[in-house]
Amino acid sequence: MLNMNFSERIVIDTQQQAWQPSPAQGVWRKPLEREAKESGHTSSIVKYDANSQFATHQHPFGEEIFVLEGVFSDENGDYPAGSYLRNPPGSQHAPFSKEGCIIFVKLNQFDPRDTDVVKLNTLHTPWLTGMGGLQVMPLHEFEHEHTALVKWPKDEVFQPHRHYGGEEILVLTGKFQDEQGEYPRHTWIRSPHMSGHFPFVKEETIILVKTGHLPVSLSK
Q1: Are the beta carbons of 176 and 198 closer than 8 angstroms?
Q2: pLDDT in tens, 106-141
Q3: Distance between CA atoms of 70 and 26, rounded to whole angstroms?
Q4: Are the C-beta atoms of residues 210 and 191 closer than 8 Å to each other?
């Protein structure tokens, strides 16, 4: 297991991690949390070299992807940087990349009833007005779980708050900050149920945020 104690706060600057080989030639990964070596609850940054592919595989409890760089593809289409994808429980595909890509992937973390298929290009999706100077782009929600992009303007300061069901952040651009530290591009932060912080930025910053999805009691 790796980082599977959901009562702990985890911060990983993924740009400082070394790429590790996957079972597929030309596909590399940086593990963030992992229940088992090649199965179960997993979150990773994954890199496809140009003209690399992964074997057809199933998603017993779903797959969630955000394309960070390049173009990710499967038999259903091509997904450029900025694409947000959800493949529901029981789905399968054979992914590849012609030009190469880097993606953020979360496997086997869906409620079995969460069966929506989502294919969204966030570069062509409008922002909505959020609290203060924030802009928000909702990506998906299911009961207590919410996923969105949040754009922070330069020098924005948010109110102190807590996270019922936890919070998970991947910094996409800029530098996110709170009273506990600074988090540059591609830093991954997982904060447990009822954790709190006082976030702010000094430069325009975009983050991918998921809330309400972590256990509300101590877990493994």
Answers
A1: no
A2: 999 999 999 999 999 999 999 999 999 999 999 999
A3: 15
A4: no
Whether the CB-CB separation of 157 and 149 falls below 8 Å is answered with no
CB atoms under 10 Å from CB of 26, counted, come to 17
Query: DSSP per residue over 11-32, as a string?
Result: EEEGGGSPPEE-SSTTEEEEEE
> In 60-194, which ranges are E strands?
63-74, 77-80, 83-87, 91-93, 96-97, 101-107, 118-121, 128-129, 135-142, 145-152, 161-163, 167-173, 175-178, 181-184, 187-191
Tokens of 150: 């949040």
CB 108 within 8 A of CB 41: yes
CA distance 52 to 97: 6
Q: How far apart (Å, rounded) are the C-alpha atoms in residues 192 and 205? A: 23
Residues 6+ apart with CB under 8 A from 124: none
pLDDT in tens, 58-102: 999 999 999 999 999 999 999 999 999 999 999 999 999 999 999
What sign results for the dihedral spanned by CA atoms 219, 185, 14, 23? positive
Does the predicted model carry a pTM greater than 0.85?
A: yes
**Is the torsion defined by CA of 40, 52, 208, 184 positive or negative?**
positive
